């Protein structure tokens, strides 16, 4: 959701952070480290009974009709929305919902793993049909692509159990975020500026290439707290084995959207397919399967950015 559209992520940095996470988890197996693959997460089963809707399938672009598939660019891990299971298969709430949308349209979804910062440019180039990576539908991004909305989430902070941190007064604190999220590019810098403007210490922002590493930093006590999407934080808290807890309330709620080329009829079609699933009750079933029903929407739109 809150991932930023532009990245300064480097391959060397990515590999280094992954290595740190692997070493930390290997040496401290009992500390509750999260992993890029999750075999202890929710065992959601696919919602059945989703049938093709001919009136919607007839509106598919010729390219998708002929191939019988929709190519989806996705960045992992971002549990529980998109991540790899122990076999290496990409799974999650987003995946189950996109699979249901594809079934409604009579096609299959084909997932291609991508660096987050490459998703929008690759959609613009026509390589991916849609980008699906917990991406916020924002006014800024709508200048580059269109979005079919499918969920709503906010920002939620977390802290080590018994060590409170105030999201509105974290001056001088170490705060973990995933690199290139809105928490990284917008939220924490803005809050840090308020601190320095008031003559207080800046927030010591710690950016990690992957959310699992940011969560690990809280679990291991390497930071004072973290900021992430509300469903992601909730999942991290659950996976920590009681080592971290929510800090404050959810705030700044905004829609998730699937990105498609600007002006593409696919945006309206995906939105219509989501709406069909909402009206049939299948959408809410999928949300409940993953425990994310608090962010369920009742109406899907194209370009529903609120800011």
UniProtKB/TrEMBL annotation:
Pfam families: SBP_bac_3
One GO cellular component term: cell envelope
Residues of the signal peptide: 1-29
Chain ranges of the Solute-binding protein family 3/N-terminal domain: 69-294
TM stretches of this protein: none
Subcellular location field: Cell envelope
Keyword tags: Signal
Main location group: other
Highest taxon of the lineage: Bacteria
InterPro entries associated with the record: SBP_3_CS (IPR018313), Solute-binding_3/MltF_N (IPR001638)
The family this protein is said to belong to: Belongs to the bacterial solute-binding protein 3 family.
PANTHER family: ARGININE-BINDING EXTRACELLULAR PROTEIN ARTP (PTHR35936:SF17), MEMBRANE-BOUND LYTIC MUREIN TRANSGLYCOSYLASE F (PTHR35936)
Protein name (Swiss-Prot/TrEMBL): Transporter substrate-binding domain-containing protein
Annotated source species: Nocardia arthritidis
Lineage: Bacteria, Bacillati, Actinomycetota, Actinomycetes, Mycobacteriales
């Amino acid at each position: 959701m809150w991932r930023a559209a532009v990245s300064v992520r480097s391959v060397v940095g990515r590999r280094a952070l992954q290595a740190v996470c692997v070493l930390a988890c290997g040496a401290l197996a009992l500390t509750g480290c999260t992993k890029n693959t999750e075999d202890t997460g929710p065992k959601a089963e696919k919602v059945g009974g989703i049938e093709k809707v001919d009136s919607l399938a007839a509106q598919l672009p010729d390219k998708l009709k002929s191939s019988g598939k929709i190519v989806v660019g996705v960045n992992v891990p971002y549990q529980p929305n998109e991540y790899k299971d122990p076999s290496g298969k990409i799974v999650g709430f987003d995946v189950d919902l996109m699979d249901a949308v594809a079934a409604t349209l009579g096609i299959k979804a084909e997932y291609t793993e991508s660096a987050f910062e490459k998703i929008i440019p690759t959609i613009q180039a026509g390589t991916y049909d849609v980008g699906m990576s917990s991406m916020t539908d924002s006014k800024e991004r709508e200048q580059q692509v269109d979005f079919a909305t499918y969920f709503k989430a906010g920002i939620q902070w977390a802290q080590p159990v018994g060590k409170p941190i105030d999201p509105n007064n974290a001056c001088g604190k170490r705060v973990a975020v995933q690199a290139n999220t809105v928490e990284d590019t917008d939220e924490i810098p803005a809050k840090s500026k308020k601190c320095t403007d008031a003559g207080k210490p800046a927030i010591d922002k710690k950016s990690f290439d992957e959310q699992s590493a940011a969560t690990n930093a809280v679990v291991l006590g390497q930071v004072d707290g973290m900021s992430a999407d509300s469903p992601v934080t909730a999942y991290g808290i659950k996976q920590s084995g009681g080592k971290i807890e929510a800090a404050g309330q959810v705030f700044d709620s905004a829609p998730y959207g699937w990105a498609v080329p600007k002006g593409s009829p696919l945006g309206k079609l995906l939105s219509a397919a989501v709406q069909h699933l909402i009206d049939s009750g299948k959408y809410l079933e999928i949300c409940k399967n993953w425990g994310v029903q608090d962010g369920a929407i009742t109406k899907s739109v194209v370009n529903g950015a609120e800011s």
